[in-house]
């Protein structure tokens, strides 16, 4: 029995095949690399993560069963010399998968905490006018936080991430209010204030440069006009298969969503 057979044995008897397992590992690795390279939060890969977490759960069960068997004198290494080797390989493969999942989630959590107000405004339904609460002497910073609980679609966040940033931003707003914002005039206590042409809500930089490889025959790279960068009109160019370019994320984002390029 070689290593591939040992890893494949984890998937025998369930819905997945060794081929789909290898493909999911590749997709997870690509999502992880992309999440690390882009400042914007990428769409939550719900079906992929559901499959990966199910495989992790089943692999842990198999490892526990093998560990129990290795401790049984009737199934010692004398009777089954490959048992410890099989157990070691499965544990190594499990550790690799867990590392990718943990690192992927930590990258997303870092972005969620940094841009929490931006994503709350993005996924939450429009709120009614809050003129009275803004002018009220009892207005507090947490009054300006939108509630995503009524949102039909929380993309690019998962429902759990949406609940997390709402709770996180509420705690942060309460801390700000008790620390210093409570002494401000009521109109200045909002965390989403855009008065004076200055936007308080920090958003990801979509103009950052990322390195991508073209996976199809050709891909159009469209960069919007940007007076600050000296681009007076929309600019477009074409990548060809196998080429590696450094381009703005905003110019290649749609192509990445269609699977036409991969982020390096």
Automatic annotation (TrEMBL):
<feature type="domain" description="DNA replication complex GINS protein SLD5 C-terminal">
    <location>
        <begin position="204"/>
        <end position="263"/>
    </location>
</feature>
<dbReference type="InterPro" id="IPR036224">
    <property type="entry name" value="GINS_bundle-like_dom_sf"/>
</dbReference>
<dbReference type="GO" id="GO:0006261">
    <property type="term" value="P:DNA-templated DNA replication"/>
</dbReference>
<keyword id="KW-0235">DNA replication</keyword>
<dbReference type="InterPro" id="IPR008591">
    <property type="entry name" value="GINS_Sld5"/>
</dbReference>
<dbReference type="Pfam" id="PF16922">
    <property type="entry name" value="SLD5_C"/>
</dbReference>
<dbReference type="GO" id="GO:0000727">
    <property type="term" value="P:double-strand break repair via break-induced replication"/>
</dbReference>
<dbReference type="InterPro" id="IPR031633">
    <property type="entry name" value="SLD5_C"/>
</dbReference>
<dbReference type="GO" id="GO:0000811">
    <property type="term" value="C:GINS complex"/>
</dbReference>
<comment type="similarity">
    <text>Belongs to the GINS4/SLD5 family.</text>
</comment>
<protein>
    <recommendedName>
        <fullName>DNA replication complex GINS protein SLD5</fullName>
    </recommendedName>
</protein>
<feature type="compositionally biased region" description="Low complexity">
    <location>
        <begin position="129"/>
        <end position="138"/>
    </location>
</feature>
<dbReference type="InterPro" id="IPR038749">
    <property type="entry name" value="Sld5_GINS_A"/>
</dbReference>
<feature type="region of interest" description="Disordered">
    <location>
        <begin position="126"/>
        <end position="156"/>
    </location>
</feature>
<feature type="domain" description="GINS subunit">
    <location>
        <begin position="63"/>
        <end position="177"/>
    </location>
</feature>
<keyword id="KW-0539">Nucleus</keyword>
<comment type="function">
    <text>The GINS complex plays an essential role in the initiation of DNA replication.</text>
</comment>
<dbReference type="Pfam" id="PF05916">
    <property type="entry name" value="Sld5"/>
</dbReference>
<dbReference type="InterPro" id="IPR021151">
    <property type="entry name" value="GINS_A"/>
</dbReference>
């Amino acid at each position: 029995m070689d290593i591939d057979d040992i890893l494949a044995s984890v998937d025998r008897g369930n819905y997945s095949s060794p081929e789909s397992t290898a493909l999911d590992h590749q997709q997870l690795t690509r999502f992880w690399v992309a999440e690390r390279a882009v400042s914007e939060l990428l769409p939550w890969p719900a079906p992929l993560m559901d499959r990966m977490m199910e495989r992790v759960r089943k692999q842990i069960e198999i490892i526990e069963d093998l560990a129990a068997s290795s401790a049984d004198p009737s199934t010692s290494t004398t009777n089954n010399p490959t048992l410890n080797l099989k157990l070691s390989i499965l544990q190594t493969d499990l550790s690799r998968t867990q590392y990718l999942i943990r690192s992927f989630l930590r990258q997303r959590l870092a972005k969620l905490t940094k841009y929490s107000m931006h994503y709350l405004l993005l996924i939450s339904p429009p709120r009614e006018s809050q003129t009275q609460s803004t002018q009220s002497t009892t207005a507090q910073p947490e009054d300006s936080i939108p509630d995503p609980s009524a949102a039909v679609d929380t993309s690019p966040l998962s429902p759990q991430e949406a609940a997390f940033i709402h709770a996180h931003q509420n705690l942060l707003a309460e801390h700000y209010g008790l620390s210093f914002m409570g002494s401000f005039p009521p109109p200045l206590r909002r965390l989403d204030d855009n008065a004076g042409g200055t936007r308080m809500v920090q958003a990801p930089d979509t103009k950052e440069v990322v390195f991508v490889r073209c996976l199809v025959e050709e891909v159009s790279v469209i960069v919007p006009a940007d007076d600050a960068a000296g681009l007076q009109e929309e600019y477009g160019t074409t990548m060809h298969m196998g080429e590696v370019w450094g381009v703005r994320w905003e110019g290649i984002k749609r192509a990445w969503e269609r699977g036409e390029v991969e982020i390096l």
